[in-house]
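pinning this so it doesn't scroll away 📌
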Amino acid sequence: METAESRRQGTPGAFNAFARFVLCGGGVGLASSFAVVGLALWMPWALANALITVASTLLATELHARFTFGAGGRATWRQHVQSAGSAVGAYAVTCVAMVVLRELVAVPGAVLEQVVYLSASALAGVARFAVLRLVVFARNRSRVAVRATRPVHTAVADPATLCHAA
């Protein structure tokens, strides 16, 4: 459940973060699926998928740091590395899905390839959301929460001093 403090700090609740993740990650994923198909015309599909996965992971991690999880700025190198780890899993899922498709269908059409690729990407995306929210960007939320719960020490003038100064 989203608290008033998390709203003030810019950290979205789980539902809002997932909606943002779908918009940012889904938009990048959709563009990536077309880029993989286009690039695969000039090189092996697995290589095209690897290149697009690297580029889209860098872009998506930046978007997730800035908008999805409310990190408040650019992604750190640590977050990029951790995000890349989850992207390796997503890459494996999409590759396995395409290998299985080609084992089941001798010459799959472009539409069937897109359906299989996007379905595998969506499945991997849900797992990535959990990893990014609970591991990669969790540190930022916990630091913000610690700062938000610490008492603020302000200098308050002693009333006796104020009376004597007047």
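📌 and the second one:
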Amino acid sequence: MAGQFEATTEINRPIEEVFAFLADGRNDPKFSPRVKEIVKTPEGPTAVGTVFRSTVKDAGMTTGREFRITEFEAPRTLRWTEVSKNLITASEGGYDLESLADGRTRVRIYNVLEGHGLGKLLVGLALSASRKDAPAFGNRIKTAVEAS
């Protein structure tokens, strides 16, 4: 079973600033407390093919995660896929940005979670928890971008 969760938030910053912040996955720990560390390869600007490797803690378990950028259309669209092998992975995810009046930006984030092996039994719980946290997650993104 696979499923999706998403969140939408409005950020009091211009679309170019918001996109630049979100495109640098090394900012993820600023709004995702589950991310303990993250590195980017190769160095330089984020582009299709850039990989972010992270250590995350979910439900008391620490795992390694690896995400590859699959679509990069500044300043509106960013997509990724998780290429690491874990019980539950984000087979697809992304940000959609929309410029609003007064220099604000609407951001939609989504992830499609998929279970593998034993993870097929657990993905429903992960989706439920992610959907429950989605509004707070969107707010953490807003707070982090506006503080940058």
